[in-house]
Amino acid sequence: MSRKHAATLPPPAPTRAAGPGRPKDLGKRASILEAAKRLFIEQGYLGVSMDQIAAAAGVSKLTVYSHFGDKETLFAEAIAAKCREALPDDLFASPPDGPLHEQLRAIGHGFFALITSEEAISMHRMMNTPGTAENALRELFWNAGPQRVQAAFAGFLRDRVDEGRLRIDDVALAASQFFCLLKGELHPMMACGLCNEPRADDVARHIDASVDLFLRAYGR
User: Fold this and answer.
1) N or C terminus: fewer CB in 10 A for the chain?
2) Model-level pTM?
3) What residues contact 75, with CB distance under 8 A and at least 6 apart?
4) Which CATH superfamily is domain 24-69 in?
């Protein structure tokens, strides 16, 4: 090729920068979380290995580490995923339309279903049994589960205060009080094995009374 001809050729296309790695397989991630939730509840945190979780999920251990990094992160994610099943994030960010009483009832039913589920009761017992969990693990559980839910609900309350529908000086305290009301006597009795799953009408009556009491304290 002549030097003149070469000068008329278009410049080579710039080399494309390498893009991000392959996106994570969401199906495998879900399988790992399901296996982790089940095994942590059945055998406790200390009794479960990443090899067991990988085998139960039908993936390699390398895949488990690729998605979650370490066992502590997987445990926290499993707890958070369980909470989101009963109390999805949009329940606080975009609650159902209607009166505030009905919004609080919806949150109350979701929270009560969460804390009285078989998995939650088993986890509660494990966390309170000496020798089954270190303080760091209990803190990890608290931050991923109860604290995350309470913080999300505090945000919901803060929005209702800004709208003029509630009058609350300490939003964090009010959020804690609401969930304590919802636990009532039923939750500790179930955790102690003193009663089975309560009847639906008893749960509804308990939640209605809790919401009414909360609104009498903080409603406009």
Assistant:
1) N
2) 0.77
3) 36, 40, 45, 137, 140, 141, 144
4) Homeodomain-like (1.10.10.60)
The pLDDT tens digits for 109-142 are 999 999 988 888 888 887 777 766 677 788 888 8
C-alpha span between 101 and 36 (Å, rounded): 36
Of the candidates 83, 84, 71, 64, the residue with the CA atom closest to the CA atom of residue 45: 71
Q: How would CATH label the architecture of 80-218? A: Orthogonal Bundle (1.10)
**Mean pLDDT computed over 92-108:** 89
Handedness of CA 153, 100, 198, 87 (dihedral sign): negative
Distance, CA of 28 to CA of 35 (rounded, Å): 11
